[in-house]
Amino acid sequence: MGDDRNRADNDFSGRSAAVVQAGLIQGDVHLRTVTETPLPSPRQLPPATKGFIDREVHIQQLDSLLDEVELITDKARLPVVTISTISGSAGVGKTALAVHWAHRVRERFPDGDLYINLRGYDAVPPLTPHEALDGFLRAMDVPAEKVPRDLHDRTALYRSLTTGRRMLILLDNAATAEQVRPLLPAAPSCMVLITSRSRLSGLAVRDGAIRAVLDVLSHQDATRLLRVTIGAERVDRQPEAAARLIALCSHLPLALRIVADRARLDEERPLGELVEELAAEESRLDALAVEDDDLSAVRTVFSWSYQALRAETARMFRLVGLHPGADIALDAAARLAGCAPSVARRHLESLVGLHLLTRSGPHRFRLHDLLRLYAMERATLDESPEAVHAARERLLRWYLHHTYAAYRAILPQGRPLPGVDVPPDATLDDALRWCEHERLNLLDVVRAAPGWGHHRLGWQIALASMAFFERRSYWKAWIDSHLAGLDCARHLSDRQAEGWLMLSLGDAWWDRGDLDEAGRCYAGSLEAARDVADAWTTGYALRGCGLVEEDRGDFAEATRYAREALLTFRQSGEERGTGLALMSLGNALRGAGRYAEALASYDDAMTVFERLRNRWSQGLVALHRGQTLLHAGEPAPALAAVTSAAALFRELGDRRHAALARSYEGDAQLRLHQPHAAREALADALLTLLELDDPLAADVRRRLAALDHDTTTPDQQEEQDG
């Protein structure tokens, strides 16, 4: 056995900051107790945004998720971390929302909060997960020399340290799911909040992330933001200017805050001056720049997203910006870029994922106004003038192709557009559906064409769209598109196109009940057509002049115009025009009280349209025939005629003429002593005409009121119908 004096016992009890275990000690020994105070829980949230405007729906969603986190922790179940992603376009306020909410609830995370800007779309390269974990581990009191070098080891240590803690982790400006995934803790007591311009779909699929997409501010919230940042009294004193500022900033929080900062520099400056500065579209992005902080400029913020795109996707983004309309179809984007729709779809989906585009419907996409301006700017900088010109021409030809296909489906016997390839036959339903989707864009395209140097395509698209605008009673678009097309034709000194466009304008004004404008257009069309010996337009312009005279009550002059138009059409072999002139002749004869002659003229017109299989015109003849029979005192056959016309117009998608036929059903039923059916028919017709903003609604309302008050006799009704 050894000497007991040399034995060291290993027993220890109590608490000590430092313990020395030794055997035999010789010489001087100096012991100093060092007390190490652990670092406080990390609190890394950046300052909250001043004047934050609550996003109530998203705040409530995050609150609910937090309640779930605490429930999971308390019941020790579902050992998965709760993840919420907030995505949206640049400047929409993702970080502001995340930081604002995090400050509201940070006391419910007693073990701290971690924050990092992952720089996913910054001007500098994104942070790697390896770099991000280095910062997190140091914040959690891991000495620098103890931070593992390997990413896998860093992730393991990070998850070990967060286990058993209740922490909030805010990962700001993430680029991809791969960048984020190593930063996710494993503890269900932790909550992760991620902001990104990307939807980060992988996190939702693999990691169960709850996604929220942040949109621009509502008008009410945008106004509240301006009141908080500029001053309530100043905004309330200039409500129209404030509303215009909101619109020019596209309700984007970042843009609104930049404008507010500028407004605060000069408290006496009227908000209207800022409106004028922003209203110049070509300089709007310049006006939204901040001189002493380039990173907050809208252009710079957008550029971060743009620079992160692959080359072909970036090209799709800037070319989509060339589209002048409210949204763009997948096929139109493909035509702009000169690629297959399947290729275009991949690029568009990428842009949607990064919130540089949003969906506006099936296979349709929309650019935020400010993003559209930025995309146009990039097209100017990154595309050659020749490439921009070619892309715009491809787009216009795509519109011409489809509008002309619709024109041929709606007006099978319509005049062919000169020099335009005949498109494949389209069904009427498909044609109307396409036109309805593109209705808001057609006028924008026609207006844009001359500025792009494509005047001929401009007037051709305008004329081709006429058939749809007429069928669906979109008079304003019809008139505005033709006025723009007329400018294109006159720029080219194309008198034939000018005459044709003025003829169509006359039809639109006549449908609207403006006889003076219609008469001027028909007369101008007739003059232009005779200048170039255009028999087709001459015949239709003559017929148009007759329509005006008929509505003015000069049935003799209307008859003269109808007969001259009929002669012109027969000499030129224009069959559809012949049928229409015969119908117009019948209308003039009816107005003159020559009912038998009128019915005979309608019969001749019906024969022409049946031979042409022109069902819409057949419906129109049946409608006029029914009116004539009603005037002639034959309500039963009149009812049969107008009922068949109404059914045909409904089938063809012409709500206006279906409503007019329905109104005459009411008149015929009244003559047949069926007041309840008459009232129902007139009310039905009135509802449709009011929806269409049709001037004939006033006449139908008067007839319905007379019926309700029983003040109109059948003879008086007949005089009013005449």
Topology of this structure?
Elements: H1 56-75, E1 82-87, H2 94-105, E2 113-117, H3 129-139, H4 151-162, E3 168-174, H5 177-180, E4 191-196, H6 201-207, E5 210-213, H7 219-229, H8 232-237, H9 239-248, H10 253-265, H11 271-279, H12 284-287, H13 298-307, H14 311-320, E6 328-329, H15 330-337, H16 341-353, E7 358-361, E8 364-366, H17 369-382, H18 385-410, H19 428-451, H20 455-471, H21 475-491, H22 495-512, H23 515-531, H24 535-551, H25 555-572, H26 575-591, H27 595-612, H28 615-631, H29 635-651, H30 655-671, H31 675-691, H32 697-709, H33 714-721
Parallel strand pairs: 1-4, 1-5, 2-3, 3-4
Antiparallel strand pairs: 6-8, 7-8
Number of strands: 8
Helix segment tally? 33
Largest sheet: 5 strands, parallel
Please identify which CATH superfamily of the domain at 56-214 we are dealing with: P-loop containing nucleotide triphosphate hydrolases
Task: Please report the first level of CATH classification, the CATH class of the domain at 56-214.
Answer: Alpha Beta
**Percent helix range:** 55-70%
Which of globular, elongated, flat, extended, rod-shaped describes the shape?
Answer: elongated
Computed over alpha carbons, the radius of gyration is 37 Å
Task: Output mean pLDDT.
Answer: 87
Find the structural class using helix and strand composition. mainly alpha
InterPro entries: P-loop_NTPase (IPR027417), TPR-like_helical_dom_sf (IPR011990), TPR_rpt (IPR019734)
Pfam families: TPR_12
Protein name: NB-ARC domain-containing protein
GO molecular function, one term: ADP binding
